[in-house]
Specification:
Layout: H1 2-35, H2 51-67, H3 71-90, H4 94-103
Helix pairs in contact: 1-2, 1-3, 1-4, 3-4
Amino acid sequence: MRIFRTALILTVLGLGGCTQCERACRAEANAYDACLRDWGQEWRDLGADDRDDYRETCTATWNMYLDGLESEARADEIGQCGDLADDLVAASDCDGYRAALQAYGVVD
């Protein structure tokens, strides 16, 4: 039973982490795409060429980071990704996007 539970947890973490952090990266990229001009920034200020480049880099960075974590820390970070994605999707304007990004330490 313990082996089954461990395998199930690892499967969920392996599949869910990628999805939640990819969701967060997609939501971040969309927020930046909508608001960079309002915030007086450009994609190059974020180290990206455009929205797609930002999303891809963000996702790759998260995947590398998550791969280096123990299962408990990984689960916590995956949860944070999901929460950030939810907050960004719920935001209705650039002020809301900025507040969500600041709450998760993405921007100052």
